[in-house]
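User: quick one
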Amino acid sequence: MELLIHEYVLLLGNEVKHSMHDNEQRLFTPLNKRVDKVRSTLPSETIGFWDDVWHRFKKNKPALIGAVLITFFIIFAIIGPLIVPYEYSKTDLISTYQTPSRMHWFGTDALGRDIWSRIWIGARVSLFIAFVTALTQSIIGIVIGSISGLSSSKVDTIIMRFVDILIAIPFLIWVTIFMVVLGPGIQSIIFAFSFTGWSGLARLVRGETLRLKNMEFAIAAKTMGASHLWLMRKHIIPNVLPLVIVMATFQVTTAIFSEAFLSFIGIGIQPPLTSWGIMVANGIAEMHYYPYMLFIPAIFISLTMLSLQLIGDGLRDAIDPKMRV
Amino acid sequence: MTKYILNRILVALLTMFILATATFFLVRLVPGDPFAGPSVAPEVKERLRIHYGLDKPLAQQYLIYMNNILHGDFGYSLAKRGHRVNDIIRDAFPKSMDLGIRAMVISIFSGIFFGIVSALNRGKPLDYLTVILVLIGISVPSFVFAALLQYFLGVYLKILPVARYESFRHTIMPSFALSLGTLAVLARYMRASMLEIINADYIKTAKSKGLSKTQIVIKHQIRNALFPILTILGPAVARVLTGSFIIESIFAIPGLGRHYVMSIQNLDYTMVMGLTLFFGFFLIVINLVIDFVYGIIDPRVRITTRK
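Assistant: Done. Structure below.
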């Protein structure tokens, strides 16, 4: 844009200078056309960062398959419960433990509930919790991380010591204590995950902030009197976002596993609502005689985790090939 | 070096203190009555409250609690009347330790082995096989893997006992189930670590010196690739520890993990607090040891503390 204005001024200058000379043709060309001419010499289309990422991601077949699978799961989690033939919580004591059949695609459980219907309610619960918590964790991580990176070294040290302490104890133990306090339920899970799972993200954002704040554009902004908030909004967040997105993908995986774990041990989702973790727990109890009750949720949860892992790996390689592990 | 060690110890102590305080206040926030139950008479309840010191003001309770912890006393279990948390930990810890060490040994040795094999055969079928194995190991949740193992080996093929922890045959399935995730993570890091130094100057020097390929791989590549692995041993131990919650529950192993899950289900607060602190302290000490070892091996860490 700046280049354009520059040329524009030059053109105007030329106008005055050459108006008396043989440059009639130039003189009588409408100004906007001349600007167009200048514009046409610039590259018609610049390749944006995300186009580049998408281009690389597309080439990664496993990641693409993962993305397709997850999209399919998300769509089904949204519309599945509306179109399945049975209510997920409807018990039918006459047709308990039905093996998969035309009536019940995935069979029925101990209370005669249709497992195909329950799988999609489970998907809704698991995916909803996972994506919401990954989002809240990212927001908290970005805010705390960039504050820590931009603040004085004293504030930075205090925040980072706190993060160290949070990281020293495994996520699962923190979450379990919080769940004991908050009681079971979706809101409790979301709160517990959001509150305890941001530390790794904050550390990442802080590290990037420290690097970014000493780069030319950030220093230039600072000399022109930009506030911390402005720096954060205009320079830090857009630059750390790709890394945060990669990490958030892995947070989704952690959240799905942790929710399943909590539900598995009985302090997560409560009946009649269900989640894949509960279904695996029920499957383990019944596996001697009805192994399909274990296999079905096991396959779904494993496929979801695998897809997310593939997407995360693919995104990481596409965004920053140097990060490759 | 002394400064580095002192710094790490100070941070570890601070972490322990904050963990203890956090668990105390969090658990005090829990709604409900630990002594609730139809068979408990009000007088008995009152006596229990006094016995456990729950009638005193919160600040005083906190001081008593901290003092007890300083003396290594976690109090009495609420669900198992008359049992001290310390005694339960002492009985259950060896079982968990046994399982944990088996799982760690399996995951460290096979993880590093797979990582090396994969890196040396980069781009060949063996590499892809390892990469797929690693992906499955990372993606499949431990409880799903454990349950499937239990079904196929225990129920379907009947070649290994389904549950309990009595003989060597009993230990095989739980150890493998517990090690899978850590194994995968270690293999992945080892592979990356090997590939990273493949173009390092000292490898080139060794090559130009005319060392044989095996000598380079063993003396230079593997040796140097192992150092970064040390840094993820801490998280690996944490992973095995939290993994034991599930594995011990599924295989009915009377270890700490199963006690932890049961105490959560029974709302046995003193037990939950005691075990949380025990796990926390255990991991902090392990990490401290790893930090020391790393500080001795690699002098750079002493100056720039880990990011």
